[in-house]
Write a structure and sequence with these properties.
Distance between the termini: 50 Å
Order of helices and strands: EHHEEH
Shape: globular
Mean pLDDT: 93
């Protein structure tokens, strides 16, 4: 079994980097209630589970039918 530490929560910068979204998009999702965040002192943290739920809630890309 691998003894690697699995990170359970991310800063806003880390969440943005891991998803490819910008910091502004992450903060907007938190502000709009679409992404759950936690506070630890002054730090805003996003849990790995909350980040996964947010990404899973985004609309699926609908490609037009091939001509």
């Amino acid at each position: 079994m691998d003894d690697a530490i699995i990170k359970m929560a991310f800063s806003v910068d880390e969440a943005a980097m891991r998803t490819g979204l910008g910091r502004d998009k992450i903060y907007a999702a938190i502000r709009d209630g679409n992404l759950e965040a936690r506070k630890a002192g002054r730090r805003t943290l996003v849990t790995a589970d909350a980040l996964r739920r947010y990404l899973d809630s985004l609309p699926q890309l609908q490609l037009p039918p091939a001509a």
